[in-house]
Design goal:
Chains A, B: Pfam families: polyprenyl_synt. The structure is a homodimer. Chain A has 13 helices and two strands, in the order ααααββααααααααα. Chain A is mainly alpha-helical.
Chain lengths: 326, 326
């Protein structure tokens, strides 16, 4: 099975992550061959598998190592992530995700809604089958609620004038950081890590998630169709105002506000004005600085965890995030 | 709190069902007041609460009566049902559900997708908080998967020429009967009913669900906007071919096939032809007979359960289903 080339540098994950995908694949039990193969395509679409990777690594924190269980939990988390991606695609009506035509463009939004729901249920099936206790499961479903509140908030704030860094951070905290935090936490807890270690893992995951989303939002202003798998400046087109733009607004509000009030899609001139304002106000640099700050907070939490190979790997992986271009 | 007037005849349910709604209401913890109140409106929209009612009644089967737990499980089941309704509405693009403007028409489909997801997560939170064991939870999430496979199948079969009664029954078995079966089963199991009793409860629920959906599908051909809360012949407009039409096809295929191949929406003439064909082929009567058969199978399962007031109530409630007009 082909996984993202980034894992070539991490042998243990290169071995385990395909097992995560395989387990998800095996859980798809649908008689209809067309529906089944469509869902399996989604599962094999080649995401980066960062959440399961962090979960697997954090399963090395505690004394109880159970590879089968660790892989199952990682699979449940990735399935949850896939479910939210599918629904996000319907909502964004994005033409492509990960460089491929999205599910809903192929089989329409309707299919994508139930397909997301199906993966959602599957994630809970896998968790309840392998998890240690009901309280962990409650924890997971509560976290999922928070993620969806984050999504609802983001939806609700679309096309509202970008206001403050604080509200942006609170939004991505629910939307992205939560699932990274849960991934690290669940991996740790199921290995019977101490409460303090589990808390460190949670915090580390939270900070990594914050940095990840900020960098993702930066890339939306930077990348091009070849290097990142989605169209550039998709967020602003969809009324999602992220950190670089929020920084730009702080200095160029009179210029930007009338542009943002226009009907979508923006034309190239409008997009150029927005880009220029962000460049003039150092929006990308400021956002990058904040991402770096979160990475450093994450590394500080990491430093409190017990030594071991996994810790080196977590260190490398997390540092690498700052350099990512896709 | 106002619940459906049908419960006036069932005092214990009239007392308990508002508590189910209240518990769901209490679990909605969203800071944004607009999002919160929109979701609470959905919760209080006044569904019939049949699934929680059956679950509460089946909690009387076993020796361990825990009203608080029974209400929580009923709440989880109704929350799951609400989540699927919200997503069904997006998919049907139905203008009204339960006589009110649907969520997605008010706040667009996007909101409805995440709102459904949120309720979905909430249902698992409630279940994991109150359920006896992980294996019950695994059971519930697997059932949910089956429900969604049923939905995906129905979606996939839309606009395909209505073929056989058998495939229709298999479709509604996944889509509707599964959740009725789970409701009865979970209620029974959490009261520590015997395995055999739990099996009887499951079967009863399954048969009730089959009858319920057949009658629902009949009403779509019969009702009018005043008595049932959705537009008449909505199913056929949306390419969902249900039992009355399948029976009509058995005798009037040459007449109906060219009509069904037309673009939607149908005009009144087309709808009149479809109605006439169903009447001529006794589609409604035949479907009603099958619903009655399922009710009788349900009552047979019921007769095997221990005596008690709950049993009388289950008998009355299930019999009443055949007479429902909304």
């Amino acid at each position: 099975m082909q996984i993202h080339p980034m894992w070539n540098d991490f042998p243990s994950l290169k071995e385990d992550l395909p097992k995560v995908i395989q387990l998800i694949d095996q859980h798809i039990k649908i008689r209809d061959t067309k529906i089944r193969s469509t869902l399996k395509e989604v599962v094999h679409a080649g995401g980066k598998l960062l959440r399961p990777a962090y979960s697997l690594l954090c399963h090395e924190i505690g004394p109880e190592k159970n590879k089968e269980k660790a892989i199952a939990i990682a699979a449940a988390l990735e399935t949850l992530h896939m479910a939210t991606l599918i629904h996000d695609d319907v909502i964004d009506d994005a033409a492509t995700r990960r460089g491929q035509a999205t599910l809903q463009k192929l089989h329409d939004n309707k299919f994508a809604i139930y397909a997301g729901d199906y993966l959602f249920s599957m994630s809970f099936t896998i968790l309840s089958k392998y998890s240690n206790s009901l309280s962990h499961l409650e924890y997971n479903s509560r976290s999922m609620e928070k993620i969806l509140i984050g999504e609802l908030n983001q939806l609700h704030s679309r096309f509202q004038s970008p206001n403050s860094v604080k509200s942006y951070l609170s939004r991505i905290s629910g939307k992205t950081a939560q699932l990274f935090a849960v991934s690290c936490y669940t991996g740790a807890v199921e290995s019977k890590a101490t409460r303090r270690q589990a808390r460190n893992a949670w915090n580390m995951g939270h900070y990594i998630g914050m940095a990840f989303q900020i960098i993702d939002d930066i890339l939306d202003y930077q990348g091009d169709k070849e290097t990142i798998g989605k169209p550039v400046m998709a967020d602003v087109q969809q009324g999602v105002y992220t950190l670089p733009l929020i920084y730009a607004m702080q200095g160029s509000r009179p210029l930007l506000e009338p542009i943002l009030a226009k009907d979508r899609p923006f034309n190239d001139d409008d997009l150029a004005i927005i880009s220029k304002a962000i460049a003039e106000q150092n929006g990308i640099e400021k956002a990058s600085k904040l991402a770096e700050l979160y990475i450093n907070k994450a590394l500080k939490e990491l430093s409190k965890l017990p030594d071991g190979d996994y810790k080196e790997t977590l260190y490398d992986l997390t540092n690498q995030m700052l350099k990512r271009t896709t």
